[in-house]
Design brief:
Distance between the termini: 32 Å
Helix content: 25-40%
Order of helices and strands: EHHEHHEHEHEEEHHHEEEEEHEEEH
CATH class of the largest domain: Mainly Beta
Number of helices: 11
Structural class: alpha+beta
Strand content: 35-45%
Length: 293
Amino acid sequence: MKYLYVVNRFYFKEKTDAIVDTLKKVSEEFHRDYEILVNDTVEEALKNKELFQNSEYIVTALGGDGSINRILNHIVDTKNVLSYIPIGTGNDFYRGNLESLENGIYDADLIRINDMYCINIACFGIDADIANDERFIHNRLIPESMRYNAAVVYHFLTYGGRHLKISCNGKDYDGDYTTVVVANSRYYGSGYKVSPFSRIDDGVMEVYLVDRLNKIAMAKVILSMKDAGHLKNPAVCSLQTEKLLIRADQPFSANIDGEVLTSDRFEIEILPKKIRLEFDADFIRKIREVKYS
């Protein structure tokens, strides 16, 4: 199959030409048949819906988890294969796949949340507020490696919990939560290992309900997520399910693979083997080892 690389010039700015040159060089080294789409936005690159409805490309997102999500939602239910090259700010989906997958093409599960698809992780609480906060996450005045941590500190100091009504596996949960996490893969938040046993092809989603906590207890949970220590915390309820319903008294914003979704009702279900996913760690490594500064 032919590769179609989707490059967002608005995102990469002055690095765009260097990334395109590297794509050409490494693709030729790997004997790939390819095209490169360079556009100002992912949406512009994918606006020709008829092209993707009738094609069989390996459509490859360049960037972070949000870029993967936007392409995923465009090509689902087509004959195209999803792929990606993680050179964004988070790259959490890549972290999980690097631990759990060999090179190849997989029939991957997706999580449907209302009318949106998710392939990595969705969160509904302090972590969503952190990831959605443009004042930090895309602030070029803050070093890229520190943006997420800066947002964590701010929201840790200001967050008061969120009241949610949750239905899962025939049981209802009604209370104040620090967060609710729904996982198809393992990492989120630039390296927080929230769901260490998740796989993208096991047909279930992991759900983590974190009770409302005081500041000290919240800090312990957040810090322990780096190495999955939160699973031992009695304030964290871990579930496996195929369907989930989350409701609130008023609309709020969740974070879906780095993208924002706002509602007062989130209907969530796992869709087994919904999309084909190509993972090539060797090719990715070649692209990532180049310095684009």
